[in-house]
Amino acid sequence: MRIVKLDESSKKDILDQLLKRSPGHYGAYTETVNAIVEEVRKNRDSALFAYTEKFDGCRLDASAVRVTEAEMEEAYGLVEKELVEVIRKALVNIRAFHEKQRRYSWFDSSENGVLLGQKVTPLNRVGVYVPGGKAVYPSSVLMNIVPAKVAGVGEIVMVTPPGKDGRVNPAVLVAAKEAGVDKVFKAGGAQAIAALAFGTESIPRVDKIVGPGNIFVALAKKAVFGFVSIDSIAGPSEILVLADETADPRYVAADLLSQAEHDEMASAILVTTSERLADAVNQEIDGFLKILSRRDIISRSLENYGYILLADTLDEAIEAANEIASEHLEIMTKDAFTVMTKIRNAGAIFVGEHSCEPLGDYFAGPNHVLPTNGTAKFFSPLGVDDFVKKSSIISYSREALEPIHEDIIRFADQEKLTAHGNAIKVRFE
């Protein structure tokens, strides 16, 4: 990895480079995606099946697009029993964490007849997109379905691309079944997003779409936003390790590579105050690259978006981490919890040398669907709040309204909204 002295100029250059990975820069594909979305919106199942055959090489019809209970049962026989047990153990942790995020309706009343409150209502139907292709992610199935289940969503509909043989990866099906999915459909890409957003003869329309995907999925979610809600438009994965001279270079290198292996556009950054650590991490990376299976992808990722930033002070390193606002942030310093209190911007913060990023990806419980490309400055991880909506409750008695009714009329008159004022006035004629 390239070693760069951290200053205002280098920090700006790196931020500019990282932003090029944002889905907002995928303009070349926008027209294609918009055409797919519009075609599915107009022609529904026929367009969905045509695009599935074109892009996935799989011919489907209304009788075969939904995964059957028999296919679900068959999936259990194709997955190692040990993996099923691991999925179940992870589910316990993920469910327990998200249970603590639940919100409840509340009401506050006073003696003069005023009742105010907030009614929390789960969404009726949610669509979960699960990618296929380069890799299979049953862990993402758990992370997207569990918070929806905890929130009390009425129906969870999952879509995922089929193989050429018309089958869905069995590990994905097992994870979906264990997490509590209601329906699974064989559909992927922009056409699946459009089907969820507008509905087809086979796939029901949903209120919100969540889940990661490729460029076409990201742009399709952007195109349908407003017709439905979405979680976010996720970019490529990223990790930042904040470390001082006490960090183990072998741990740091291994953790950086754990994200670089996702794809060529993944970002891996070390910010450190120790030049000795920087050199040692580079040596460890060279050693790991000789044995890791996805070394070609890792090498291209590090070449494009891998950096070791040398800071003069720990405070300077912390400020750089806050500016980059990484999806995953690991802290390996002498007093890691004190450093953690100074972090303002990160999707997930891993504190201490044994709290490595894959722990969060698979098992600890917090959600691994996280803000990317600097959006951790204003976005949060996927959670139960993403699957509920809130309604305000207002109830006034005549006795409560009377002392303030003239104030409200005065406000309405100032805004020249006389019908507003009249609605108050008629109650006291």
Give a quick rundown of the structure.
This protein has helices at 8-19, 30-43, 45-56, 69-78, 81-99, 138-151, 170-179, 189-198, 215-224, 249-260, 275-289, 295-305, 314-324, 336-340, 357-362, 398-401, 405-414, 418-425, and strands at 2-5, 106-109, 114-122, 125-129, 155-160, 183-186, 208-210, 229-230, 238-243, 267-272, 306-310, 328-332, 348-351, 388-396. The chain is of the alpha/beta class and 429 residues long. It folds into 3 domains: 2-22 and 235-365, Nitrogenase molybdenum iron protein domain (Rossmann fold, 3-Layer(aba) Sandwich), CATH 3.40.50; 27-230, Nitrogenase molybdenum iron protein domain (Rossmann fold, 3-Layer(aba) Sandwich); 397-428, no CATH class.
Describe the structure.
InterPro entries: Ald_DH/histidinol_DH (IPR016161), Histidinol_DH_CS (IPR001692), Histidinol_DH_monofunct (IPR022695), Hstdl_DH (IPR012131). Its cofactor is Zn(2+). The protein is built from 18 helices and 14 strands. The protein is of the alpha/beta class and 429 residues long. The chain has three domains: 2-22 and 235-365, Rossmann fold (3-Layer(aba) Sandwich), CATH 3.40.50.1980; 27-230, 3-Layer(aba) Sandwich (Rossmann fold); 397-428, no CATH class. Strands 1-11-10-9-12-13 form a six-stranded parallel beta sheet, sandwiched between helices. Helix 2 (30-43) crosses helix 8 and helix 4 crosses helix 7 (170-179). It is globular and about 85 Å long. The model has no long low-confidence stretch (mean pLDDT 94).
